[in-house]
Each structure stands twice: as C-alpha cells, then as structure tokens.
TrEMBL record:
InterPro entries: DUF1198. Pfam families: DUF1198. This is DUF1198 domain-containing protein. It comes from the Bacteria.
Length: 146
C-alpha cells in the first residue's frame, strides 16, 4: 500500500513538472530546432540571464512566431560568441550555425540592444558590445559590407 502512495506521489510530481515547464521546453525546442543545436546551449544561456529576463525571453518565443524566434537566435549567437568565448574558432562555428539556419550572419544594432536587455544582470558594457559587433561584421561578413 505504501508503494502505491509513493508511486502516485512520484507521478504527480513528474506530471506537475512537465506541465509547469511546458512553455520553457517548447521555446527551447523551437529555437534549438531552428539553429540545429542541442537545447543545452540554450539552457545554459537562460541560466545566466537571470530569472526575470529568462522568463521574458521564453515568453517572447513560446508563441512560435518566426520573427521572434529569429531574433532569439541572434541572442544565442551573442551569448556564445561575445559573453562565453570570443575566439575566432568559436565565432566561426556560431556564424555557421546562423548560416545553416538560413539567417543573415550580420549583427545589427537591434540584436545588440536585445542582448543588452536580456543580459542586463551581467552588466555588459554597451560600448564593448558595439565594438564586438563592428569587429565581427568587418572580419566575418566582408562580402556584405561591399
């Protein structure tokens, strides 16, 4: 009898967890499928955003609107290239992720502003991000600049 009660509690917790995290998983999966990456890359980004910003990020892309998901892809790009690892190899890898997803690899000021908003808790310097954006666009997207 005790085993049945324990099993019922476990089922209630598992079902509750799945229901409570449905939006997060849906948003994470849609963005990961667009970029053709593992969801863990997005999970790590969400953890560093902070609770409030990550909730807003998830809310913005959980509706499944293509434009919002595309904007979110650039946030993932900025996170992994500017915040985590700005090496040329890593930037090339993530640029190729954008290209594979049929997204323009150019970073715009709108992408930078969104990143500053979502990563507000990390105290990113806007000037440094602008320099990174300019340097990235000049170095990796020379064809577009002509």
């Amino acid at each position: 009898m005790i085993w049945i009660m324990i099993a019922a509690l476990v089922v209630v917790f598992v079902v509750g967890y799945w229901i409570m995290t449905a939006d997060t998983r849906k948003a994470n999966d849609s963005l990961a499928s667009l970029l053709k990456i593992k969801p863990v890359y997005i999970d790590s980004m969400l953890l560093e955003m902070g609770k409030r910003q990550s909730a807003m990020f998830i809310r913005s892309i959980s509706g499944g609107y293509a434009e919002e998901i595309r904007k979110a892809a650039y946030i993932v790009f900025i996170y992994h290239t500017f915040i985590k690892d700005a090496s040329d190899e890593n930037i090339t890898h993530w640029r190729n992720v954008l290209v594979r997803a049929h997204l323009d690899p150019m970073l715009t000021s709108e992408h930078a502003e969104l990143a500053l908003f979502y990563f507000a808790e990390l105290d990113i310097e806007p000037f440094e991000l602008a320099q990174f954006r300019r340097s990235y666009n000049e170095t990796f997207n020379q064809i577009h600049l002509v």
